[in-house]
Amino acid sequence: MNIKTILAATTSLAVLFSATAASAQSMEELIEGAKKEGMLTTIALPHDWCGYGGIIASFKEKYPFLTVNELNPDAGSADELEAVRANKGNTGPQAPDVLDVGLSFGPQAKAEGLIQPYKVSVWDEIPDAVKDADGYFYGAYYGVMAFVSNKDLVQNPPMEWEDLLKPEYAGQVALAGDPRASNQAILGVLSAGMAAGAKAGTESGAAGLQFFKELNEKGNFVPVIGKAGTLAQGTTPIMVMWDYNALSARDSLKGNPPVEVTVPTKGTLAGVYVQAISAYAPHPNAAKLWMEHIFSDEGQNGYVKGYCHTARFNKMVAEGKISDELLKALPPAEPYEKAYFPTIEEQNANKEAVVSGWDKVVGANVQ
Q: Quick one: pLDDT band at residue 331, thresholds 50, 70, 90?
């Protein structure tokens, strides 16, 4: 994974547990503890996102004594943190055990004491650039920002961000999330800002907001959270989303309608998603088993099946642990070679600008 030093600017934060304590239990102890808990509660894991449907199914098969309770699959990263805050004293089914959030939300969750450390058995194979040194959060996968178009309604799919402003795309362009809460949408704004020449950070947030203001004023922006269903129905004929989500939507629609996925060459942006265990997890042993599963060879291949590049990708390819069939199904390597990986500091600055400025600058209530 050719990732720049993403965590270099992360502020040093107090740790609650030692690194040793974070991974002291054996797999046998975790399994015995999880058997007593009987459940794992996830949140914000749509089955068509990065292969999660298959990953969850394989987890259930591996640990049949656990019931997987899936909360709010369409939640954004901010919603996940709010779910932890709202359920600090709740050991019932509304309290999430594990989180899957955008990279910039990891340090925020750690600073607030919302997550606990745990180092998976393959810890050393996760690049330092995408993990917290103390084990509070660690990157599992990444993709690049892309456009997906319904070719029945969009004769000439957009190739670059500036194309989206063309009159031919009136009432057609949507984000795949609320830019006030969704990491995917927030980074979509960052990508638009960078395509306009802005530096990643506060500058990209401001430039991206201006782009979406113009897109909205021209009547091209649709304030609807885009999904495969809205793409097919024609509500959102063009969507901005991670490449793996766009490719999953293409596959799920099976040519009805025909779909085209394009990656812009300007503002090409990569986004890492990190995993963490809630500090208040009602089922901590099951949560640790989940982490071991998604970072195992089986779990990592599950992500690749969902068109994602994973934390252990390079090492697994070198060791022949990812089949040629899966590798051939991935998009061409060129966009990934050009992609920019914003630092946590840049993502935080961009996020603050976008979240605080969307209503004021763009004024479109995305829902």
A: confident
Burial of 352 (0-12, 13-18, 19+ CB in 10 A): middle
CB-CB contact of 224 with 206 (8 Å):
no
- With both helix axes pointing from N to C terminus, report the angle between 183-195 and 202-217 in degrees, rounded to the nearest 10: 90
Q: Would you state the pLDDT for residue 7?
A: 32
Task: For residue 323, list its beta bridge partners.
Answer: none
Q: Which two tokens stand for residue 24?
A: 């002291």
Global model pTM greater than 0.90: no
Closest by CA to 39, choosing from 63, 69, 60, is: 69
Short-list 204, 158, 162, 197, CA closest to 179: 204
- Distance of alpha carbon 44 from alpha carbon 76, whole angstroms: 7
pLDDT of residue 291: 98
**195-234 CB burial, b ≥16 within 10 A, e <16:** bbebebbbbbbbbbbbbbbebbebebbbeebbbbebbbee
- Percent of the chain beyond pLDDT 70? 93
DSSP 164: G
**Length of the chain in terms of residues written:** 367
What is the C-alpha separation between 161 and 350, in angstroms, rounded?
Answer: 18
Dist CA 15 CA 21 (whole Å):
11
pLDDT(5) > 50: no
**CB-side exposure of 226: number of CA atoms within 13 Å?**
30
Assign 192 to helix, strand or coil. helix
**What pLDDT, on the 0 to 100 scale, is given for residue 9?**
31
Q: Residue 350: count other Cβ atoms within 10 Å of its Cβ.
A: 30
Handedness of CA 88, 56, 339, 226 (dihedral sign): negative
H-state helical runs in the chain:
27-37, 52-62, 77-86, 105-111, 183-195, 202-217, 228-233, 243-253, 284-295, 297-305, 313-318, 324-329, 334-338, 344-361
